[in-house]
Amino acid sequence: MSPGTLRFGYGTNGLADLRLDDALGLLADLGYDGVGLTLDHMHLDPLAPDAAARTRQVAHRLAALGLGVTVETGARYVLDPRRKHGPSLLDPDPDARARRVDLLIRAVRIGADLGAHAVHCFSGITPAGTDDDTAWKRLAESLTPVLDAATTAGIPLAVEPEPGHLLATLADFHRLRTALGDPGRLGLTLDIGHCQCLEPLPPADCVRAVAPWLRHVQIEDMRRGVHEHLPFGEGEIDFPPVLAALAATGYQGLTVVELPRHSHAGPHQAELSLPFLHRAAASATAEPPPAPSHGEPSATPEGSSTR
């Protein structure tokens, strides 16, 4: 498999100490194909009064550098300076949920203006005292207007299973998809590390199993049962089979390095990560992949999101 078969990006949540223009220039200089752009106060603030004008500037910058883009919505404190990822789509307060819905609709519009191939989101952690059925009902109701906006904008909404969240596994994604009636604009963000962390299938089999719904991919190393995003080579993942499986699906979007806890060394990690991925892709076997195995979803590891 040629390294050029897949398109690699790097997430700005791992470059939080850089100005956005500098981060984009760095990634272009290093040879990345694109960027996973987290909408946040230090980069492209979706709540700023000049967000529309700034979005146009970023779109021009991306075009000038030849970078593709995915819009990500995992900023920790963009809505609430005291609650990480708060409020969520599961918040007991309907007004609070509406704030998260508004953020996601803004993200969809920004994504459309940037020419993004997808907009990413996740469910959030189930609030204390909220039963499972209520949480799933809130999630489906909250995402409905976001999916309507995505349909109008012509851009996929890619939901990410996140360890510790209500929607934590690939099985949970299918539960949501079924509950919503399998809408055309609903897709999946597959985090390869999360597959290693908690899915019953190996990561390469996970890729094959969800190929029809794959709209965005995040990648990093990880260990079984531990939700910690690690630089490549520091975890347990065998990457060539994963990249071979991903290439075989015909996936056209970005595969984005996700190292949000490494911004202190972001430029260095970005410099190391792309050659690693190119080597792994080049060494991937050209033989047909094995048929995926089957199993039941495992329990979510202890602890909430490390992002």
From TrEMBL:
<keyword id="KW-0413">Isomerase</keyword>
<feature type="region of interest" description="Disordered">
    <location>
        <begin position="281"/>
        <end position="307"/>
    </location>
</feature>
<dbReference type="Pfam" id="PF01261">
    <property type="entry name" value="AP_endonuc_2"/>
</dbReference>
<feature type="domain" description="Xylose isomerase-like TIM barrel">
    <location>
        <begin position="26"/>
        <end position="277"/>
    </location>
</feature>
<dbReference type="InterPro" id="IPR050312">
    <property type="entry name" value="IolE/XylAMocC-like"/>
</dbReference>
<protein>
    <submittedName>
        <fullName>Sugar phosphate isomerase/epimerase family protein</fullName>
    </submittedName>
</protein>
<dbReference type="GO" id="GO:0016853">
    <property type="term" value="F:isomerase activity"/>
</dbReference>
<dbReference type="InterPro" id="IPR013022">
    <property type="entry name" value="Xyl_isomerase-like_TIM-brl"/>
</dbReference>
<dbReference type="InterPro" id="IPR036237">
    <property type="entry name" value="Xyl_isomerase-like_sf"/>
</dbReference>
